[in-house]
Amino acid sequence: MKEEFCHSKQMRIMGALTFLMVIIALGSYASLNFENIKFANPTPATISVSGEGEFLAIPDIGQFSFSVTAEDAVAATAQELSGTKINAILAYLKEQGIAEKDIKTQNYSLSPKYRWDAEVCPIGSYCPGKQVQDGFTVSQTVAVKVRDTSKAGALIAGIGDKGATDISNLNFTVDDIEGVKAEARTKAITDAKAKAEVLAKQLGVRVVRMTSYFEDQNGPVPYFAKTMSADAAVGFSGPELPVGEASTKVSVTVTYQVE
Questions:
Q1: Concatenated DSSP letters of 40-74
Q2: Which DSSP symbol is given to 175?
Q3: End-to-end CA distance of the chain
Q4: What does the pLDDT look like over 220-251, one tens digit per residue?
Q5: Contact indicator for 153, 240 with CB cutoff of 8 Å
Q6: Contact in structure between 57 and 222 (CB atoms under 8 Å)
Q7: Whole-structure pTM value
Q8: Collapsing DSSP states into helix, strand and coil, what is residue 91?
Q9: How far is CA 87 from CA 26, 63, 73, 82, 147, in A?
Q10: Rounded to the nearest 5°, which phi and psi values hold at 5?
Q11: β-strand 171-173 against 223-224: which pairing, if any?
């Protein structure tokens, strides 16, 4: 009897030890799985800030375009008339110091022109007439870049005096647009970094690294002069046109990982 009791006691002890080992093993396994899950699906804390930068530059170029049109019953003659006027204007621009690289043809077209001829109709009836070709029209549009902005007004007056039939709005802007954008971008990024440091300090965290970057640009805003018709430009020495300032703005959004 005593031996059976001892054997039963040993079995209970062994069972308890086995159960305890199972509990410990399950706990270790669960802890390991939690660590693996944490490693496989990291969710680092982040903060996002925006920054803005503006750069003001004095416009260093002026831009305008003009057109010349000519009409004639014969296409070749219309082209010759247009070419004579254009050549005279281009020669004048080059005499005034405009480089050939700063003169560019934007459009050239040769198209037939038409008129409507009335038809003889019986009394009480309606006759719409008919379309009849009536020669050709040649149109050429040229864009000009003026690097000496003080000459812009006089140049507009000069080409009007030499036969330009349409002169577009003159605008002043910055030639090195990318350089101006880079200056504005530098200011925007500096602004974003400063905001991130302040926010991190307020939250009691530390900035670790940048995780994403987005940029939104607004190009230089040109100054536009008023439109001048060819008739108004003839015999006019040219106005004094203030160039003002060209503003370029860049906005950035930067996301940082923190801990």
A1: HS---EEEEEEEEEEEEE---EEEEEEEEEEEESS
A2: S
A3: 67
A4: 555 444 444 444 444 444 555 666 777 889 99
A5: yes
A6: no
A7: 0.60
A8: helix
A9: 94, 20, 22, 9, 21
A10: -65, -45
A11: antiparallel
